[in-house]
Specification:
Blueprint: E1 2-5, E2 10-12, E3 34-36, E4 41-45, H1 55-58, E5 61-62, E6 72-73, E7 82-83
Antiparallel strand pairs: 1-4, 2-3, 4-5, 6-7
């Protein structure tokens, strides 16, 4: 999962890749719904944004749960493949 936070105040679910889920889940379950990421949290997004089980489903990741920093992007190959700067 990739995590986005600090600087992202709201995440919109109306358009891809922040589409949300349509089955009544707590976070971003409606197309016009917005969600404010807490200051001490990150919003994790899966690589397959349309079908990923991520923060749109289970909410923000508390900063104390993060154990490291991303080093390498494996997928998608283009244009983001390689070391993370």
């Amino acid at each position: 999962k990739k995590a986005e936070g600090y600087g992202f105040e709201r995440v919109m679910s109306a358009r891809p890749p922040y589409r949300g889920y349509a089955f009544g889940h707590e976070y971003l379950s409606k197309p016009d719904q917005t969600y404010k990421v807490p200051r001490d949290g990150y919003f994790a997004m899966g690589d397959n944004s349309y079908n990923s089980f991520d923060s749109r489903y289970w909410g923000p990741v508390p900063v104390e749960n993060l154990v490291g920093r991303g080093l390498f992007v494996y997928w998608p190959f283009y244009p983001h493949w390689g070391l993370i700067r």
